[in-house]
Amino acid sequence: MRATLIHAARDIRVEDVPDPVLRQGTDVLVRVTAACVCGSDLWPYRGIVGTDEPRRIGHEFVGVVEDVGDDVRTLRKGDFVIAPFVISDNTCVHCRNGVQTSCENGAGWGGEDDAGFFVDAGQGEAVRVPMADGTLVAAPQPGDDAMLASLLTLSDVMGTGHHAAIAAGVGPGSTVVVVGDGAVGLCGVLAARRLGAERVVAMSRHADRQALAREFGATDVVAERGDEGVAKVEELLGGVGADAVLECVGTKESMDQAIAAARPGGRVGYVGVPAGGAELPIRTLFGRNVSVGGGVAPVRAYFDDLLPDVLSGAIDPGRVFDLVLPLDAAPEAYAAMDERRSIKTMLRP
Amino acid sequence: MRATLIHAARDIRVEDVPDPVLRQGTDVLVRVTAACVCGSDLWPYRGIVGTDEPRRIGHEFVGVVEDVGDDVRTLRKGDFVIAPFVISDNTCVHCRNGVQTSCENGAGWGGEDDAGFFVDAGQGEAVRVPMADGTLVAAPQPGDDAMLASLLTLSDVMGTGHHAAIAAGVGPGSTVVVVGDGAVGLCGVLAARRLGAERVVAMSRHADRQALAREFGATDVVAERGDEGVAKVEELLGGVGADAVLECVGTKESMDQAIAAARPGGRVGYVGVPAGGAELPIRTLFGRNVSVGGGVAPVRAYFDDLLPDVLSGAIDPGRVFDLVLPLDAAPEAYAAMDERRSIKTMLRP
Questions:
Q1: Residue A241 needs a FRET pair 20 to 30 A away by CA distance; which of A140, A141, A305, B77 works?
Q2: What is the pTM of this model?
Q3: Does residue B309 contact residue A119 with C-beta atoms inside 8 Å?
Q4: Taking all residues of chain B, what is their mean pLDDT, rounded to a whole number?
Q5: Which residues of chain B neighbour A98 with C-beta distances below 8 Å?
C-alpha cells in the first residue's frame, strides 16, 4: 500500500510499504477514508524535532473496518470508525479516569503496540489498529464531505480544543480568551461557546482565521500580541483578565501571553505541545492565583459528549479543513500547512 | 503599645511603638486577643528574605473592636473579630470573584493602606484595620482557649489548607496526598476530609505531627520522601498516584514530589510560598495531564464555609497550636518554630 514517511526535515515522501495484516486477536484493519496533517507533525517537518531515520507519520484518520481479529467484540467489517490520536485499551485505571493518553497499555501510531508489533501511522491507505475495541469509536457512515471532515476532527483537533476548554474550567457565562488560531485554537473557540461561554476573544492576525473564529462563535478578535494583546483583552473584558484562557500554541511567548490574559483566580487550559524552555513561572502564578492545567488531550474520553453534537450538526468543526489533497500530495500538504496557506489539510487515499 | 519588629535575620524584638489611632472613616481599632507566627515569617527570620531595616511583623490575629470610624457599617465596639492575612475591600471585582488577595485596594499588615497610612502588623497589642467592613469577619466571643485557637487559624492556616484542597479539586471519594506537615499541611488534611476525601495520605517524618495528622483524619502516613515517598504513596493507592495533591511547603523538592505523587489527570493544589528556582516542569505536567493551581490563599473568601464548622466544633483546627507564649516572648516563639519544636506558636499580648 501507499503511506507517508518523513525522511528528514522538509523531506516528506509517499512510498510503497507492506500491506498491514492482523497480528493480535484484538486488532482490526482499517481502510483509511481520510487522514490529515497535525500541527505537531510540523515539528519534525521543520526540524525542531530531529528525524534519525525514515519513519511513518500521521496520527489522525477515519476509515472503514476491513478485517476483524477473533477477540474483537464491538466492531464489525464495514463499520465506519474514528481513530483518536492515541491507542488505548479504554479499560485500565487511567482510561477509566478519562486519561486514555496515559493508558497502561497505550501506544502511538507509527510506533509499536503492547506486544511489540509495528503499528501503521495514519497518513496511509490502511492501518492495523491494536486494541481496536478500546481505541476506535464507530460512527454512522458520513453522508457528505462536510460530515466526513467534522468526524475527522474528533480524531484530534476538536477533542483537543475541547480539552483546553475543560481544563480551563469554561462554563456558562465564562469570559474566555483563545491564544492560537490554528485548527486547535479555532476548535477551542467552538468548544468554549458549546460549553456556554458568554465572551470568547480569539487572538488572531489572519483575516481568514479571524472570519472562521467569528463563525465558530468568537465575540471578539484581537490581532495584537504580547503585552499589547493582553491590554486589548483587558479593555474588552471590563478592565480585568479572562476567567479562562485556552493556550493552543505551545511556545513560551504564547504561554506567557495566556497567563497574563487570565484574571486573578483564572485558569489557563493548555494543549499546545510545549516547545523548548517553557517552564511555568510559579511566582507569577502564585501571586495571582492563576492555575494551569491540560496536556496531551485524551480525546477518546470526549466522544460521548462531542460525537452526538457533530452528528446532529450542532457543531461543524470540519470547517477547519480548507484544503483537501490526494494522499500522494502529502509533501504539498505539509508545505501548505507550514507556510500557513492552509489551516488544516486533509489527505484522501 | 508593645509590638514585634524584625531587625535582621534571627533578630526579633518586642518594643514600644506608637499607639494606633483611626486615620480613615472606614478604619477600626482592634485590641489584639491573640496573634501567631506564620511559617512565612520564618523566611525573613532565617534570612532567606532580606530585612533592610527594622519593620513590624505578623499578619494573623484576632481581637476586640475598640474604636470605630464614622463610615464603618457592619462592626461595633466590643465585637470579636478575625483578621484575614490580607486587607481587602471585599467589594471590587477580584473580591467578588473570591480572590481577595488580589483586591484592587488591598494592602498588607505592616505595610501601607490605600491612602498611604502605615498599617500595624499583627504581632502587637493593637492594630488599626483599614477597610474594616471588608477586611474583618465578626464572630461570637470564644468561650474557651480551644475555640480562640480555632478561630485564630481562620486568619491564615485553616483557610490556606482549605485553599490547597479546593485548588486540587478535592471532593467526595477523592484520594489525597498532603506534602508538608506544618500547620498548613495539617489543616490541609482536615480540609480534605471535610470535603469528603476517602483517603488522605499525610507525608510526615515527625511523630507528633503524624499523630495530629491522624487525629485530623489522615488515613495513612508516609515518612519517606522524594522518589521513595512517591513509591510508597502509589503502593498505598493501588498502584496509581493521587487524584489530588496538596503542596504545603514551597520548595522545588516538595513541588516535584507533589507532581510525581499525582495520578495522570490529577491536580496539585499549592499554597507553599514558592522558594527560589522552583519553576514548574511543563513537559512533565503536559505528558501526564497534571494540573497545578493555587497560590496565596484568599482566606477571606472561605469564612462562609469554614466559620460555621469551627463554631459548631465540627472541625478543631486550633489544635495546631502546641505552644502559647506572652507577646514579649516573641523571640522565643520564632526560635521554637524555626527549630520545629513547635508546630504553631500563639502570642498573647
A1: A305
A2: 0.96
A3: no
A4: 96
A5: 265
